[in-house]
Amino acid sequence: MPEEHTEIKIGIVGCGGRMGQTLIGAVLDQAGARLSGGTERHDSPLIGQTIRHPATGVETDLNITGDAEALFTASDVVIDFTCPTATVLHSGFATKHNTVHIAGTTGMTMADEDALRDAAKTVPVVYASNFSLGVNLLFYLTQKAASLLDEDFDIEILEMHHRHKVDAPSGTALGLGQQAARGRGVDLKEVADRGRDGITGARKRGDIGFAVLRGGNVAGEHTVSFNADDERIELTHKAGNRAIFARGAVKAALWATGRKAGLYDMFDVLGLPKE
Ligand code: NAD
Q: Are residues 64 and 164 in the same domain?
């Protein structure tokens, strides 16, 4: 772990991706942090290219490599917004090289998440479906509202993302579902209604419904609505751009460095109450 007053070395896996690029900018702009490198897939045409600040174009003295293990060795923390198979592989490197792992990849199965839980026995791991301050506050408010409103209020979760997103519903929408279910004291698996098409029959009391929209370059919008007869409460978050996730991930990286091993989330990083 770094000594006092030394910069924290942060590496970015998948640095050519939409989030990867935003993260490069966030790390380069962060006081007290130093970019230790960036990787891409072995077959990526980006390998060998110089890493630049995505906004200013200013060059670093680092090239994009395909060697994730070397990046984990050279870093105090690695931030990972890639894909589930890559994140599972990376979590093994985090354990092997005692590197803090900040994982933002969504679409992870329970088995994929087991890899993060295993790594968290050895190193600090921060894993969150959404790294923004606003969405984590929305998580909290959703749980609170669900705990105060009974099943007369049908809960529906609506999300919209850009046309390139590959998983649905979004990890954040599922996280909101978890919070709503927790507030109600039920298991989301038992009450989630994730796809409606054709003659679905009437809505089941107590279900938590999900609806998904895709299009354009929308960074992420989520609404949780509580629908009773004659009244509706809606809690909404709209992400302006990906910088909010990158800022949260860098904040998590600084927060987790030097902490004891464990699986943390953004509630821990932001100090939000867990009830
Ligand atoms: P993207 O497809 O633009 O970027 C992913 C990048 O990872 C690509 O450049 C890809 O080549 C690279 N990659 C894949 N396998 C790799 C490997 N083995 N080694 C190195 N690089 C590898 O996708 P994106 O929009 O940047 O999103 C990435 C992930 O982050 C998705 O799962 C998305 O849902 C998630 N995400 C999470 C949050 C959050 O706050 N938790 C916010 C936004 C996006």
A: no
